[in-house]
Amino acid sequence: MNERKTIDLEQGWEFMQKGITKLKNILDGLPEPPFSSHDRMMLSTAVYNMCTQKPPHDYSRQLYDKYRESFEEYITSTVLPSLREKHDEFMLRELVKRWANHKVMVRWLSRFFHYLDRYFIARRSLPALNEVGLTCFRDLVYQELNGKVRDAVISLIDQEREGKQIDRALLKNVLDIFVEIGMGQMDHYEKDFEAAMLEDTAAYYYRKASNWILEDSCPDYMLKAEDCLKREKDRVSHYLHSSSEPKLLKNVQHELLSVYANQLFEKEDPGCHALLRDNKVDDLSQMFGRFSKFPRGLDPVSAIFKQHVTAEVTALVKQAEDAASNKKADKKDVVGPQEQVFVRRVIELHDKYSVYVNDCFQNHTLFHKALKEAFEVFCNRGVAGSLSAELLATFCDNILKKGGSEKLSDEAIEDTLEKVVKLLAYISDKDLFAEFYRKKLARRLLFDKSANDDHERSILTKLKQQCGGQFTSKMEGMVTDLTLAKENQSNFEEYLSKNPNANPGIDLTVTMLTTGFWPSYKSFDLNLPGEMVRCVEVFMEFYQTKTKHRKLTWIYSLGTCNLMGKFEPKTMELIVTTYQASVLLLFNNSDRLSYSEIMAQLNLTDDDVVRVLYSLSCAKYKILNKEPNTKLISPTDIFVFNSKFTDKMRRIKVPLHPIDEKKKIIEDVDKDRRYAIDASIVRIMKCRKVLGQQQLVTECVEQLGQMFKV
Fold this sequence. Notes:
Layout: H1 9-27, H2 37-52, H3 60-84, H4 88-112, H5 114-124, H6 129-161, H7 168-180, H8 187-215, H9 218-238, H10 245-258, H11 261-266, H12 272-277, H13 281-291, H14 298-325, H15 337-360, H16 365-379, H17 388-400, H18 410-424, H19 430-446, H20 453-467, H21 469-498, H22 530-546, E1 560-566, E2 571-577, H23 578-586, E3 592-594, H24 595-602, H25 606-617, E4 624-627, E5 638-641, E6 651-653, H26 662-688, H27 693-704
Parallel strand pairs: 2-6
Antiparallel strand pairs: 1-2, 3-5, 4-5
Helix pairs in contact: 1-2, 1-3, 1-4, 2-5, 3-4, 3-6, 4-6, 4-7, 6-7, 6-8, 8-10, 9-10, 9-13, 14-15, 14-16, 15-16, 15-17, 17-18, 17-19, 18-20, 19-21, 19-26, 20-21, 26-27
Protein name: Cullin family profile domain-containing protein
Organism: Rhizophora mucronata (Asiatic mangrove)
GO molecular function, one term: ubiquitin protein ligase binding
C-alpha cells in the first residue's frame, strides 16, 4: 500500500476513455448501465493518481488537454453531423437537445477531472474545466450555426405574429443558449440574435402599419397598435430575454405611432380635431389612454389640442373686434357690455377646456402647458382697442359693484372671481391689471358702490395666493383705510357735538386715506365756494387735535355734494361733484357768467372747466343755459342759470363724464416698472457683488417675470 504503482499516461487514459465513452452512450440514449458511486470514485481516483505522481510522471497538463480533446472529438464526430442534416424547427429541437447533453457532459467530466480544477488550473491561472467545456461548444457548434438558428427563430416569431401556433418553450430554450453561451455576458445574444430580431420587427410593423393607416379609422388603428404592443410584451415574458423589452417596444411604437402620428391625428373620421370639435369626451379619454402608453405619444395630441383651443380663442377675439368696429366712434375706447360678454365667453371656454385637461387628459402637464399657451394668445394682446388686463379688471368691477350688469348669486360671484384669477395667471403684465383694478376698486370704495365687502376681501385673498402679498398690499390697505375712515368720521361728528363753535354750517363727511395705498389723483387749489371753505377749516382744526405731524391733501375731484336747486317749477335736490357744485354756487351771486369768469373764479384747468360746463349745460340735465346754444364748449360762451329747469324726479344725479385714465394708468405703470427694475438690479448685485452684464439681465428678467414682461 505504501509503494503506489506508477501509472503511465496511455494506460491511465485508456481507463478514463472507457468512462467517457460510457457517458457518451448514456447521453445518446444507447443501452448502458448508469454510473455507480464506485465507478465515479475510480475515475476521480485515476485522475488524482496521474496528477500526483512525481515528475516526469505528473500528467496534469496532458490530462487538461485531453479533457478538451474529448469534447472536440465528440462534437465533431456526433453533434455537428446530427445538426447539419436538420433544418428549421427540427434543427432547433436537435440543438436544444445537444446543448442540454453537452451541459450534462461538462458537469460529469468536470467531476471526474475535479483534481485539475482544484490544484493544476488554480496554480497556472488557466480557464476552468466548466469554461473549457462550454467554449468547445461555442467555437465548434455555435459559431457555425448561429446564423441559421437566428433566422429559424425569427421566422417562427413572424409566424406567431401572423397568428400561427408555435412552440414557445422551444424558442425559450434556444434563446437561452444565446444567453448562456456568453457565460455571464450578453454580447452573443445582443449581436447574434437581438439586433437582427429588432430589425425584422421594424420591417414587419412597417409593412403592417402602411396598410392599416390606409384602411382604418384612428380609434381602430389605435386598438390594433395597442394589441400589437400587448402581444410583443407577452412575447418577452414567454421567450425573449427581459433586456429586449424596452428596445422591442420602442421599435414597435416607432413604426406604429411615431411614423404615422400626424396622419393619425389628422384623419377626419374621426381624428383628434374632429373629436375636439364634436366634444367627444369619452373618445378623447380613450385616445389619451392609448397614446399615453407610448413615449412622447402625447406630444402630437397636445399640439392639436393647443391648435384647437387657440383657434377657438382667436375666433372669440375676432367676434369681439367685429362688434367693436360697429361701435360709435365716441365710444370706441369705452369698455361696454359687449366686452363683458366677451370676457364671460373666454371664461366659459377656459372652463370647458380645463375640464378636458382634468378629466379626459388626467391632469397631464403637457395639456396644462398647451391650455396655458393657447390662452396666453388672448391674454397678452389687445382686444378691440382694450388691453386684456383692463378687460379683466372691468369685468371684476362689473361683478363687484352695485347695479352691475352681472346679476349673480353669492356662490356664482365667488366662482366667477376664482376663474378670473385663473385667467390672470396667463397675463404677463399683471402689474397693469393691478393698476386698472386698483382704480376701479377706489371708485367702488369711495363712492360706496361696492356690493359686498366679503367679496372684495375674497378676491384680494385669491389674488394674494396667485401673485403674492406685494401684489395686493396696496389694495388691502385701501379696504382697511375705508374702515378707519368711518371711525374717523364718527370721531369728527363727536368732536362737532362737543364743540358748538366748530360748526361747518353744512353736513360734512370726510374720507381720510393713506396716500401710498391709493392711485394718484390730480390735486388742484380749487377756489372753494365760501360755504365749503368753512368746512375745510373746521376739519383741519379737528385733525390737528389728533396729530400735528401729517399733511392733509384735499382731492376735490373725488368729492360729491347735495345741493338744493330752487327752480321756478319746483325745488329739486341735485347730487353733483364738488367741481359741479362749485360752478353752480357761483350762480347764487350772478345770473350770467362767461367761460373766462368761471375759470378765473374756480382756478381750474381748461379741460376740467369744459368737462364740468358740458355736464351742466349740454348733457341730459340742462341746469345752465349756454349762449350760443351748441353742443361744444368754447372760451367765448356765456352761461345763464336756467330757472325754468325741471324734471319728473325731485332728486336727480347730474353725471360728470369720467376722464379716460387708460393712458395715465399705462404711463404710471411704466414709471413704476423702472423703479422695479432698479430695485431688482440692486438686489441681485448686493447678493452677487460681481456679475457679467448678460447674466445680470437674465436674472433681472427672471426675477421680474412674474409681474411683467421686461
